[in-house]
Design brief:
Elements (H helix, E strand, L loop, with lengths): L10 H4 L1 H9 L7 E5 L8 E7 L2 E7 L5 E5 L13 E3 L3 E2 L6 E2 L5 E3 L18 E7 L2 E5 L7 H4 L3 H8 L6 E11 L3 H8 L5 H4 L1 H6 L7 E5 L2 E6 L21 E6 L3 E6 L3 E11 L2 E11 L5 H29 L21 H16 L1
Antiparallel strand pairs: 1-10, 2-3, 2-5, 3-4, 4-9, 6-7, 7-8, 9-10, 11-17, 12-13, 13-14, 14-15, 15-16, 16-17
């Protein structure tokens, strides 16, 4: 680098117009988490969710395939479903137009009276979707690259670290409201420059901060580290799988992350922006079959009471500071060697943000 790199201007985190543009652009043209495939256990099982201001639903067909559709009837635009459930067919509650699980129109009251009406020309609008080690991701851009192109090696690495992923189901979701812009929270998650000073349990009980590093793999930020003395862990880490004595993380730009704790315990983060100053972070914890697991519960509780609580205070303070007239962004700390005391991960995140607006 010829000269120091300055971080994004405060307006990227405080301007409602920027937030609106992100919804129209970035969030509508990137891979976003929709639901866990285990929520769709039988033909006709569906679940609704929202991406970039759009209501969507995922539904499993008789052919076992999971499809995702915009949640809108093609007749008069009434929303089709809410929450989750099981349906033999998708019936609009407004005029009873009925769709197959594949999205094709099956029937509608008195449509045969319409001369020239071609039932085969009417179909729900499908959204690009992929299953990724048991998680359903969607992208509103039909021309986007695959997840493996966006996040090279991530699927293979996660399958190696979480060998039993096909057996896992959500045990609990921990919902946390943070009074900050979603990018403040994501950036805080994506560096460990602050860990030793602010996360004593994580920094001294799980990872070795001096070994912590974050490097890009496509649009994935890959977190790697050595672990502390695992004899002091508060749970039995001997899972019988490789990597049982390691910690690692895969952040999938822009709003989802897989974490694997020692013992091959899977934890996920999903950022859901509310407005320019608020984001809800959903932390998922998983067990075999989703059955009760004291060890996973204990780890989730420890995480919530330590790292999560500590981060809330940090990110909310940053958001307040971004609105200060006195904030004049100083250069990022970019160490060419990488490592825990470098903010090169923030450099990459902010580069991706700038590219989003340059392409708009």
């Amino acid at each position: 680098m010829a000269e120091p790199i300055k971080p994004l201007a405060a307006r990227y985190y405080t301007d409602s117009q920027v937030f609106w543009l992100e919804n129209e652009g970035l969030l509508a043209h990137s891979w976003q988490f929709g639901c866990h495939a285990s929520e769709l256990t039988e033909a006709g099982a569906y679940v609704t969710f929202e991406i970039a201001g759009e209501s969507l639903f995922a539904i499993r067909g008789h052919d076992e395939k999971i499809r995702v559709f915009y949640n809108v009837c093609q007749h008069r635009a009434h929303q089709l479903v809410s929450d989750s459930g099981v349906k033999r067919a998708v019936v609009c509650p407004y005029h009873a137009w009925t769709y197959e699980l594949t999205g094709e129109l099956r029937a509608g009251p008195n449509i045969n009276a319409v001369e020239g009406f071609d039932k085969s020309s009417v179909c729900l609008t499908e959204v690009r979707a992929e299953e990724f080690i048991g998680f359903v991701f969607v992208n509103l851009d039909p021309n986007t690259e695959t997840m493996d192109e966006w996040f090279p090696n991530a699927r293979a690495e996660l399958s190696e670290w979480v060998r039993n992923w096909a057996e896992l189901k959500p045990l609990t979701w921990v919902e946390t409201l943070e009074k900050c812009n979603w990018k403040v929270s994501v950036e805080n998650y994506s560096e460990c420059y602050h860990c030793e000073l602010n996360h004593p349990t994580f920094a001294h009980g799980v990872v070795k901060p001096q070994s912590y590093d974050v490097q890009p793999q496509g649009k994935c930020l890959r977190h790697t580290t050595q672990c502390q003395n695992l004899e002091d862990m508060t749970y039995d880490i001997h899972s019988g799988f490789e990597h049982y004595d390691e910690y690692s993380s895969w952040f999938l730009w822009p709003m989802f992350s897989f974490q694997v704790y020692p013992g091959n315990v899977l934890n996920t983060y999903h950022w859901r922006p509310i407005d320019v100053d608020h984001v809800v972070v959903w932390r998922g914890w998983y067990s075999i079959g989703g059955v009760e697991n004291d060890m996973v519960r204990q780890l989730a509780k420890q995480d919530r009471e330590t790292t999560v609580e500590e981060d809330i205070h940090l990110v909310e303070s940053v958001q307040r500071g971004l609105r200060s007239r006195g904030y004049q962004p100083a250069p990022l700390v970019i160490d060419p060697r990488g490592g825990v005391k470098s903010e090169h991960s923030i450099m990459h995140l902010q580069k991706w943000i700038r590219e989003t607006f340059d392409e708009a």
